[in-house]
Design goal:
- This protein has 97 residues and is mostly beta strands.
- The chain has a domain at 31-84.
- The protein is 9% helix and 31% strand.
- It contains one helix and six strands; from the N terminus they run βββαβββ.
- A six-stranded mixed β-sheet has the order 3-2-1-4-5-6, with helices on one face.
- The longest helix has 9 residues, at 52-60.
- It starts with 16 loop residues before the first strand and ends with a strand.
- The mean pLDDT is 94.
């Protein structure tokens, strides 16, 4: 299934959520930026990166809400966003980069 990303994702800067995952097969991080929780529109795909700080920086350039499943614990989401997590995100463990 092919995901169609928004043609002008820059219009959504500062909104939505970046989801980042560790891929054990490719030994790299991948993910995307989505309009969630305000919608369900895929905005932009992250290129694969091997360095944690590089992929977190990519996410933070787009939105303050960055959730990551790191290599060290790929079964759990961590907060890697800007500032303190709010609402339901407050239950997430912070990931220091």
């Amino acid at each position: 299934m092919t995901i169609e990303y928004h043609s002008q994702p820059e219009r959504f800067l500062g909104t939505g959520t970046v989801f980042i995952y560790w891929d054990e097969t490719e030994l790299s991080y991948f993910g995307d930026w989505d309009s969630f929780p305000d919608g369900n529109q895929p905005l932009e795909e992250a290129s694969r990166r091997t360095l944690l700080d590089a992929v977190v920086s990519w996410g933070r350039e787009r939105t303050p809400r960055v959730l990551i499943r790191p290599e060290s614990d790929p079964g759990e989401y961590y907060w890697a966003g800007l500032g303190e997590p709010l609402g339901g995100d407050g239950e997430l463990k912070p990931l220091t980069v």
